[in-house]
User: Which sequence fits this backbone?
């Protein structure tokens, strides 16, 4: 039943996000077909992967942050927390269902747009590369997990109906504009997600999935999520 | 057979920094009866209820609900399976309809009674397809009550249940509570509506500034409690009436009111010995017991 609640709570946000995140990158790919650019596969990949992927990343981050806007502390702000905490379920289960349902939706928001963009590429007769698409998905998934877990943590420690997404967007901006532009840019999750660090300058394709970096991101996300669960377990309402 | 208490606390305390919301609360709530939990705003009623349900942790002391310790997370889940709770603000999920809210809640309880839920929904005139966000506070209260009683709880805890209800809604609420009690559910409800408590409660606990002032049965109040109004020729001394069984003494000029829970005869005898010109003895309402207890505490703290 908690899954049912999570779905009813987030379905509008999820479906609107899905529509936007599928439509805009697909249009970008489709529209490019009409442009008179040198249509070599490399140029095409560069355009589709760089611009299309970047657009998906931006929209996915916004969607993931908004999807994780709910949660126990927001319920405190909206006044439903007494009803939720009086249900015969542990706080751990409340958090796990919320995280897993949010993660499932975030996963759909990663995979469906990429599949759609890939299908539009095929339909419009453009060159495609499944391995490149999967490479980008790995970057989006691993980097996205960090921001997803940050959104979970912030919504678990910051009160207020809309405070958590505002703070999370602030952190995202700090990563892009601050860390991403500094000499520590290789630590920027944003840079990791858009794949800047892994482009081959001559082919303009991504080469060699950075498994170490992927593992580090997943580990950080797990730690942050665990901290969020602990924070809610200790919290008084 | 002696029923075990459904709620039992021993020296339960809750502090927020230097503020003590609940102090040394030792409370025992019996099964098979309706217990009213009276107190002014900020007396600590909601804090106590939240501790009982595991929403906040006691600073010290211990408590158990239906034999489950309130500070043990796993036992707290178990107790919430058998306890229904209607919170003070009765907020439910705005994004659900009435039918979805009922469906959602029913999934957590194996002993959910769909026919009871449906008959209450009709009685309370709750439209199935209406979103919770468009319900009035009174209708939200009725929906919360429906969710609480449709599952045959062993204990029903309500925090200010009549707030926001019109007179008809209050009647339906009180009727529902009495029916639940008759079916074997222990009812524990907080209120400042003393008349409601007096109408349906068997037992009353009065809380003031986090302390339990009284835990009495209404039968005892009716049988043993008396107010004695006295008139003297000169201003009497309150100390003369600090006798066993005297709850409070209030003086205004030459007049004095003594509230006692026993030994009214001793008070009358003392008044006669002090040449009281008028002595009037009468029964006392719960409102008067409450006001007398609260004012006595306030005076003691000044």
Assistant:
């Amino acid at each position: 039943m908690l899954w049912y609640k999570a779905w009813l709570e987030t379905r509008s946000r999820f479906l609107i996000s899905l529509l936007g995140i599928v439509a805009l990158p697909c249009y970008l790919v489709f529209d490019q077909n009409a442009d008179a650019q040198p249509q070599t596969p490399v140029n095409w990949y560069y355009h589709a992967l760089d611009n299309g992927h970047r657009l998906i990343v931006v929209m996915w981050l916004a969607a993931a942050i908004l999807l994780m806007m709910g949660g126990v502390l927001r319920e405190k702000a909206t006044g439903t927390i007494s009803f939720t905490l009086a249900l015969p379920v542990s706080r751990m289960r409340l958090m796990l269902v919320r995280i897993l349902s949010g993660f499932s939706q975030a996963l759909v928001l990663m995979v469906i747009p990429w599949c759609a963009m890939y299908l539009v590429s095929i339909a419009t007769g453009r060159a495609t590369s499944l391995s490149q698409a999967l490479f980008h998905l790995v970057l989006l998934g691993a980097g996205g997990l960090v921001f997803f877990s940050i959104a979970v943590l912030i919504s678990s420690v910051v009160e207020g109906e809309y405070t958590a997404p505002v703070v999370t967007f602030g952190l995202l901006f700090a990563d892009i504009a601050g860390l991403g532009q500094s000499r520590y840019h290789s630590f920027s999750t944003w840079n990791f997600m858009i794949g800047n660090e892994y482009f081959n300058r001559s082919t303009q394709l991504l080469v060699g999935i950075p498994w170490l970096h992927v593992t580090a991101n997943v580990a950080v996300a797990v730690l942050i999520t665990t901290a969020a669960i602990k924070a809610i377990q200790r919290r008084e309402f | 057979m002696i029923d075990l208490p459904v709620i039992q606390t021993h020296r339960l305390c809750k502090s927020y920094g230097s503020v003590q919301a609940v102090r040394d609360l030792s409370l025992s709530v019996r099964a098979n009866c309706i217990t009213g939990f009276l107190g002014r705003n900020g007396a600590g009623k909601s804090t106590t209820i939240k501790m009982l349900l595991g929403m906040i942790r006691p600073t010290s002391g211990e408590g158990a609900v239906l034999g489950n310790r309130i500070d043990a997370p796993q036992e707290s889940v178990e107790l919430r399976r058998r306890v229904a709770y209607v919170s003070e603000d009765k907020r439910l999920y705005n994004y659900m309809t009435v039918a979805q809210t009922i469906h959602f809640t029913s999934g957590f309880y194996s002993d959910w009674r769909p026919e009871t839920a449906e008959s209450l929904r009709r009685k309370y005139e709750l439209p199935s397809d209406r979103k919770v966000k468009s319900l009035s506070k009174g209708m939200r209260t009725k929906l919360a009550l429906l969710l609480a009683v449709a599952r045959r709880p062993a204990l029903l805890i309500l925090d200010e249940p009549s707030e926001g209800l019109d007179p008809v809604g209050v009647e339906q609420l009180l009727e529902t509570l009495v029916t639940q009690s008759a079916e074997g559910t222990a009812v524990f409800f907080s209120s400042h509506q003393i008349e409601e408590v007096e109408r349906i409660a068997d037992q009353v606990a009065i809380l003031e500034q986090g302390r339990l002032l009284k835990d009495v049965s209404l039968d005892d109040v009716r049988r043993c409690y008396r107010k004695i109004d006295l008139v003297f020729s000169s201003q009497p001394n309150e100390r003369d009436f600090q006798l066993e069984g005297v709850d409070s003494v209030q003086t205004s000029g030459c007049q004095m009111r003594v509230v006692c829970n026993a030994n009214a005869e001793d008070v009358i005898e003392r008044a006669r010995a002090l040449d009281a010109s008028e002595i009037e003895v009468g029964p006392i309402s719960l409102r008067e017991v409450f006001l007398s207890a609260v004012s006595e505490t306030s005076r003691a703290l000044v």
Notes: Chain B touches chain A through 32 residues (CB under 8 Å).
